[in-house]
Structures are given as C-alpha cells and as structure tokens.
Amino acid sequence: MLLYSSIITPRLQYIADFAGKEITGKPFELTADKGYFQQSNSPKINYSAERSTTDEFWIKHHPLLFENKITEQLIECFQLNNQKAFFKTEGDFPFDVFAASFYLLSRYEEYLLHQKDIYGRYAHENSLAFKEGFLNRPLVNEWLLLFKSSLKQKFPSFTIHYSPFTFLPTYDIDIAWSYKNKGFWRSLGGFIQSIVKGNWQQYKERLRVLRGKQRDPYDTYGWLNSLHKQYKLNPYYFFLLANRTSRYDKNIFPKQKAMFDLISDHLIRYPVGIHPSWRSGDEHGLLQKEINTLSAITGNKVLASRQHYIRFTLPETFRRLSNAGILFDFSMGYGSINGFRASAATPFYWYDLEKEKQTELMLFPFCYMEANSFYEQKFTAQQALEEMRHYYQVTKKVNGTFIMIWHNHFFGTDKLFAGWKEMYEQFIRETGK
What does the buried/exposed string (b/e) look like for 76-88 if buried means 16 or more CB atoms within 10 Å of the residue's CB? Predict the structure, then answer.
C-alpha cells in the first residue's frame, strides 16, 4: 500500500507504520513524490488537502500529524457505525483515521495540563475515552477494521492482513507470601498487630504457617502452574524487588533465599520481568538497582517491566525504562478503572511526543486488572467475571492481544477474596475450550 503526503513527518511515519502493519502486515510505503504516486498502479492512499487521481483512496488530512508542538486539540466526537470518531474530514473516509489514531496511541492528552489522582497518576476521568464513553472498547483497532473494509471496497484485489488473537495472562508478585519469609522483626510486628487489633484468628493462622502446619494464604504458585499447564498458557510474571519496605512497597526482600528460589522456579517456566517499586518513581537510581537484582537472580538481561500501582508519568517514566534497557513494558492501562487507556488492544511502540520520535520501547496494553474490579469498582466476583468476559470478547473481535493482570493473593485462602479463585478458574476454563 502506497501512501502519499506532500510532507512526511515523524508523526506520519509512526502511524503509517502502525496502521500499515495492522492492515497489510507491513508498514505503508510513504512518498512525497506526487508524480510517482500518480503513476503507481498499486493500491494507494492520498493523504493530502485535495484529490489527485481517480484511482486513489483520498483522506483530506487533519493538521495534527504535521505539527511539531503539543497543544490543546479541538475534538468533537460523532457517531459512526455504532462507534465514536473524531477529526471529521472530507474524502473517501469520514474522518482522519491516522490523526485520530495517533492522538490516542501517543497519549497526547497526557502531555497536556491535567488533574492527578490520589496516587499522583494521570486521572482516567481526564481522558477523552472516559468522557466520551469508549474506554471499554479498543477503538483504534475497531477503526482500522472499518478502514480495511473501505480499502477493500476501493481495491477489490487488495490483500488484507489479519493478525491472530492472543491471550496473555500476566501476574504481579507484590507480596509473595502473607506470613512466610518476612524475617524475625516483620513477623514479630505482625503478631503484635494482631494482638493489638484483637485479631486472634490471624494470630493463630500466622503461627500455624510459620510452624509449617498450614500453607501460606498467598502461596498459590503450584495451583497456577497446574492451571497454565492444563490450558497451555504462557503467562508473564513481574516481581517487585524493593530493597526495603515502605507504604506501597511491602514485598519480600530479594535477599531472601526463598524469593531467589521462587523467581528461579518461575524463570524455567515463564517469561519474567521487573515490577519497579513505588520508591523507584521518586528515587530514580533505584530502578537500575532493582533491574540489576533481578538480572543477578535470573542470569539474564531484564527486558520487560510493569510499573507498580501502574504509576508512570509521560514521558519521564518511559524514558527511564528505555535508558535502563527495558524493551517491553506492560503498564499501558489504568490502576483506577478497567479499559483501554490507549484505545488499542495490540502492542505498539511508544512515541516520545516531546522528542518527536518513535522509540524502541514496545508497549503491551492491558485492559483488565482484578484489583480495579475489587478495590476501585467494588465489583463482586461474578460482576468481575462478566467484565472480564466483555474485554476478552471485544479484544478477540479485533484479533488483538487480551492482556489481564492478576495478583497471587487473589487466589489464596484469605477470606477477603473468597470466590475469586473459582471465578478465575471458570474464566480460564471457558476461554480454553
């Protein structure tokens, strides 16, 4: 597919690569040579201010992809085939699908002045997707399916590419065990806290676990391994390896032999990545130290990450990850609500909007996290199951990659999460058929 534009900018190159791979399996060929474009017999898209030939697919462009600044954009959404769209324009397609997709994928709005949530993150309430009611849909992928259909009508011999649907469960190991392997002083503090609160059941449970008479409530790894093996799943695991505890970092210390053994056991089964601590977002030198710790345990270079609490700020966090050698990040989603933060259900390269360049950091967007369902949306296990089914189905419909986040303690024996393990197993059973 040949795409003509009188000016080829980094923004246009980026979205032409993404859209091209989604539509044809490879990037669009770009040209600024109008004569070459007009003479070409290939299927071709004219992305310019006016129609050029009769055998082209014309989209009158929006100025966004030709700007080199970040400024408020006038966005007016309209209904199109039961979908929202914006940047309405003239031509053979009702809106500028390239500019609109770039706006969402680049997270353009997150570079603008915005409200923070209680954790200092970009608040989902700011987003166009939330305000316009399409947060629960992979709108960019849906647009491109519609665009494929329009291109096929214009060029009947044109070969359309369809990627296979992928299901990728992922797990964040924030607290590997509830009672075990915490060391003498943390265990003593736990006993004292139970006494002060009069929680004698917890006191007795901790004692039984530490005496080896009961399995730790968060020790669900064997059960998960069996489930993955049965349904032929290859999940990703992310381990939090902070060197000291804090309000939001309550992991088992990485120096513990049990933690070393746990990571080593997972390494021989699954891909493993780093779960950068909360403190690493404030003390930037900690990120590399935590990556080095994981690398020392695995004996491999650490290439994948996901931010703890989904805490990141654009562009700073992703630049630090890139500088630390991370090539794959799984943080593109919200830690406050489920949905498609970038309105996409397929991996894409991060575009550094301030530097106006595509980077080598590949983003793997997630759309469902059980903690959002439980803590933020206050869903029951059954409601969460219905929500998870929705995201699975809409992702499968666009042949995307369905990525969800779970934590080991949701599958344990803590009464707070009663029913969630069974719900998860039901979901895996349904999707594994």
Answer: ebeebeeebbbbe
Domain boundaries defined on the chain: 2-154, 166-178+216-431
Nearest to 263 by CA among 233, 229, 209, 302: 302
Q: Could you give the C-alpha distances from 181 to 171, 292, 298, in angstroms and in order?
A: 20, 22, 20
Measured CA distances, 383 to 244, 270, 370, 371, 378 (Å)? 36, 30, 11, 13, 9
What length does the chain have? 433
| Class in CATH terms, 166-178+216-431 | alpha beta
The residues near 375 (Cβ < 8 Å, ≥ 6 apart) are none
Q: What is the tens place of the pLDDT at every residue in 340-378? A: 999 999 999 999 999 999 999 999 999 999 999 999 999
8-state DSSP, 249: -
For residue 167, the cross-strand partners are: 402
CA distance 120 to 337: 15
Backbone angles phi, psi at 225, to 5 degrees: -60, -45
User: Could you tell me the pTM of the whole model?
Assistant: 0.94
